[in-house]
Amino acid sequence: MKYEKALLLVLAVTMTIITELDLLPQIHRMGFYCGDPKLSHDYIGDTVTARYLLLISFFIPFLILIDKNLYQSSFSTYLLMYITFIIGYCLCISSVNFFKILFGEPRPHFFDTCKPVEALKCTPGSYVSTFTCTNSDLRRARDSTKSFPSGHSALSTFSAGFVLLYISNKASDWKRIVQVLCIAWILSCTVTRIFDHRHHWWDVLSGIVYGMGLAVITLR
């Protein structure tokens, strides 16, 4: 069992590194409707940056250390739980990154970030199936077609959801505080993705569902 978990950890970390470094080619890119208002927002950045998302989500399970009752009888039990969390954490990141290059959905700021040359001369309402981004920032141009699903929503929900499910049947004076912090983290990472025009609402919803589902599977 220990060797199986160690192998899973190595595979999950490897997949995360490969997908985070953007080493996989784009599998598919959706087209767009010329002048689509859903894709015409300006790029304004992230309220919750990717760096803070990764760091805070990674350290959220440490909230369980507030009270020994939350991680049962021994610290070794907590370590086993945390290793399990890291495996799911890495699988969440890598699988969401893969879905992004698989679906290739334009972000709400697609026109502003990709700057497709085809959008300059197409008839409003007509569908453009293939396009070429003219933005000199290649990383940002490629990111403009990675809207589905929301990685912020999936990862924040997975990390906080994992802790919420883990402590649900445990008695502790700190339990309510941990629950409130976890829910606040999910809300801050999901709602801001829509207000920042970084994702469509269905991207965020799918990320929440996927993240919570993965949390349940990881715990079981």
Brief description of this entry?
The chain is mainly α and 220 residues long. 57% of the residues lie in helices and 2% in strands. Helix 3 (75-103) runs antiparallel to helix 8.
Protein described:
With 220 residues, this protein is mainly α. The protein has a domain of 144 residues. Helix content is 57%, strand content 2%. It has 8 helices and 2 strands. Strands 1-2 form a two-stranded antiparallel sheet. Helix 7 packs antiparallel against helix 8. It is elongated. The chain starts with a helix and ends with a helix. The model has no long low-confidence stretch (mean pLDDT 91).
Notable traits:
220 residues, elongated, single chain, 8 helices, 2% strand, two-stranded antiparallel ribbon, mainly alpha, 57% helix
Strand content: under 5%
The succession of helices and strands, N to C, reads HEHHHEHHHH
Uncertain stretches: none
Q: Looking across the biggest beta sheet, what order are the strands in?
A: 1-2
Shape: elongated
Q: Treating each run of at least 4 consecutive H or I residues as one helix, how many helices?
A: 8
Q: What value does the Rg take, in angstroms? A: 19 Å
Report the structural category.
mainly alpha
The quaternary organization reads as single chain
Assign a percent range to the helix content.
Answer: 55-70%
Fold blueprint:
Blueprint: H1 2-20, E1 32-33, H2 50-59, H3 75-103, H4 110-114, E2 127-128, H5 138-143, H6 151-167, H7 175-195, H8 201-219
Antiparallel strand pairs: 1-2
